[in-house]
Amino acid sequence: MKTIRKTAMAVTSAALIMGLTACGSDTKSSEGKDASSRPGDATGKRADAPAVLKAALEKMAQQNSYRTVETGKTGSEPESRAEMTFQNEPEATETKTFGGKSKGAASGGTHILSVGQVLYLATSDVPGKSWYTMEDLDSAPKPSAPSQGKSGEKPKENPERRVQGAMKKWVSALLAVSKDLRHIGRETVGSRAADHYRGTVVLADLERYEGPAMTKEYRDLYLLQTKKSGMDKAQIDVWVDEDGLIVKEEEKGRTPKGDERITEEFSDYGVDPKIKAPDRKDVASWSEYVASAGKKYRTRG
């Protein structure tokens, strides 16, 4: 299986530029149990799936940070795993992937930090350094401080923010074209009570969609990633907790390699992830990395 669709792109791109590559928690049903209403659901009518999911997306956009664990499996291929932490302001992301060994990731995984607009990739290929970057650190923009809104003002989603986790694409696709979106029941995800929603997304329908539920950017990205796997439709399940936040989602579909499943679980909304750029003394430049890693792999091969 390709590793989880989006998380390893930066490392893969770096390896291609160099030419080196050529040489879920349990979910238990508790349907029927009483639960208090949630934001966006003042009357307690959890069965209104579109309203609940739309409100959950809006609330997600207000969160400054959260963590996800994403697992994926296709057919008989090994399961892949990614752990991601996102922060909106100041912009920062940490991604760890776990999978098969490769020249670009001899340890069997990757570790990536993005702070401001600078990407740092963990490496063991440069003596005395733990990270490398393709950016010129002398000219790279400094991370911006969090914006201070007016008292009581609703935080706004940063429109320039990169896609973070699959949440926005999957839920937006459901809201855009699913003809069978519905409330499945009341369940427990880990230790949290949550409402379970399910719908089907047919890619041919999504290709024709133009409307407010999903922007062209997110639509095209979702179509690109899903078509690449060979799907023509996907079943998407979403679990929303009592605070109106998405705690889990799952996409399933049939591909030429067999059934594919990607699951993403969310936690630590609003918790400071404390993502910081590495000490500059511990960061190799791109030219240093190319020289050291290229020499290392030529010697091996």
From TrEMBL:
It comes from the Bacteria. The keyword Chloroplast does not apply. Keywords: Signal. Residues 24-106, 132-164 are annotated as: Disordered. InterPro entries: LolA/LolB/LppX (IPR029046). Residues 1-24 form the signal peptide. Residues 61-74 have a biased composition (Polar residues). Residues 151-163 have a biased composition (Basic and acidic residues). This is Lipoprotein. The lineage of its organism: Bacteria, Bacillati, Actinomycetota, Actinomycetes, Kitasatosporales.
